[in-house]
Q: What sequence folds into this?
């Protein structure tokens, strides 16, 4: 598998773990000095690890949909992956629904075994909306 395919698979696996109630499984993809940030705000480990552990207990459901992955080789050991993520979030009460769109800029590095670990994830919020989730009958009435 080529470099782009490998990084795309790692990104998808990380989001799948979060979306399927296994957020802490994604922590194995991270370097010890991993950080995630938006603008001037940054969070590293172990705080991020605690956030992922709490995420497993969340009552809402998410689906992360990454797309448009572009890879830049910085050097033989460091790679930048830029991509867009649409996040759909459904709250059980009172039926809230939100859609957010983020630009992600990841820095992946080779580990000692030739694989990849995520060192830095920079996030920029593009769209963040909260709406009420339509009912099935509302959806059906729209099609009439």
A:
């Amino acid at each position: 598998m080529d470099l782009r395919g490998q990084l795309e698979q790692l990104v998808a696996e990380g989001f799948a773990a979060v979306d399927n109630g296994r957020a802490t499984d994604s922590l194995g993809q991270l370097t010890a000095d991993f950080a995630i940030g938006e603008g001037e705000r940054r969070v590293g480990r172990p705080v991020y690890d605690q956030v992922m552990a709490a995420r497993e207990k969340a009552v809402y459901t998410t689906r992360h949909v990454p797309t448009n992955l572009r890879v830049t080789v910085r050097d033989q050991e460091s790679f930048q992956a830029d991509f867009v993520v649409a996040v759909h979030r459904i709250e059980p009460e009172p039926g809230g629904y939100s859609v957010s769109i983020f630009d992600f800029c990841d820095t992946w590095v080779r580990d000692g075994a030739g694989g990849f670990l995520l060192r830095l994830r920079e996030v920029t919020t593009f769209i963040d909306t909260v709406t009420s989730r339509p009912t099935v009958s509302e959806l059906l009435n729209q099609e009439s």
